[in-house]
């Protein structure tokens, strides 16, 4: 360990001495501010406390007349941070993040659905009653499953994480199926009354794929011709593109009769 560099702590004293020896005419404006609010004298910083993930559960306790709310702490011990990361901001952990990660890992296509991006306070879930998964003024999405599962874990006695997940998913699938049926019936009714719709997303995707395939075929033929010509230049043989076309049988027969 080398000597500690305390130059930054003594910057005010250094400026006053330089003014006394005539290095500059007047003191800098920050000298008085540093006198009122001096730099910290503690050289060693205390690392921030690492908080455990606290989960709320409702459990039936033997001898109690009704289930009671219990706060559980994460059993897994927290590993100490490395010296290079000791003073980084403390990581914030919420149980919703774990539930959200699990749901979207099992349902990745839910992220591909169109969504309305509106600036919110980040606490919109608190304004709904998650005793049911379907909410007024909020579309059904993956966040509904997460909040419904969290409500079941926090309010239903002896509820396990897997059973709450299965319950929320079952309600989610039922409502998704209902929405699809309603959307299909509405389209059929509109077509029956003379409405016309453009190509579907699947048809648009197939058309784009066909165009890209034709473009690729043209490029592949051109690249194959260039490769054959390059190979013929080394071997001295004729490339397939330079070979004359074979005469048909009718042309040969006509030439012999003449």
Instruction: Note the beta-strand portion.
Output: under 5%
Count of discrete alpha- or pi-helical segments spanning 4 or more residues: 7
The biggest beta sheet is recorded as: 2 strands, antiparallel
Mean pLDDT: 83
> Which parts are unreliable, with pLDDT below 50 for 5 consecutive residues or more?
244-249
Secondary-structure-based class equals mainly alpha
What is the topology, as strand order, of the major beta sheet? 1-2
> What order do the helices and strands follow?
HHEEHHHHH
Spatial separation of the terminal alpha carbons: 106 Å
The total count of strands amounts to: 2
Large-scale geometry: flat
Helical proportion?
Answer: 40-55%
- How large is the radius of gyration? 37 Å
Could you characterize the architecture of this molecule?
The protein is built from 7 helices and 2 strands. With 258 residues, the chain is mainly alpha-helical. Among the domains are: 8-40, no CATH class; 89-192, no CATH class; 202-239. Strands 1-2 form a two-stranded antiparallel sheet. α3 (95-106) crosses α4 and α4 packs antiparallel against α5.
